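Many introductory courses stop at the sequence. We go one step further.
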Amino acid sequence: LIFSDLVFGYCLKVKWICDYFGLSYEWVDISIIRKEPHFEVSGTQIRSGKIPLMGLGNGRHLEETSAIIT
């Protein structure tokens, strides 16, 4: 799962990298403009409001574009 907002370029970088390499993912659009920064990944509430965020499926997650694309 990738939680992100398509309005912001740094979030789009993650989408573009996944698309370029043909990686499958589920995109969950989070609107920080509508103040939706709190969401749940693998049963864990994420309150940092940092997006993009990638849920790894094992209870862990990565925040920040550079951490996700490297």
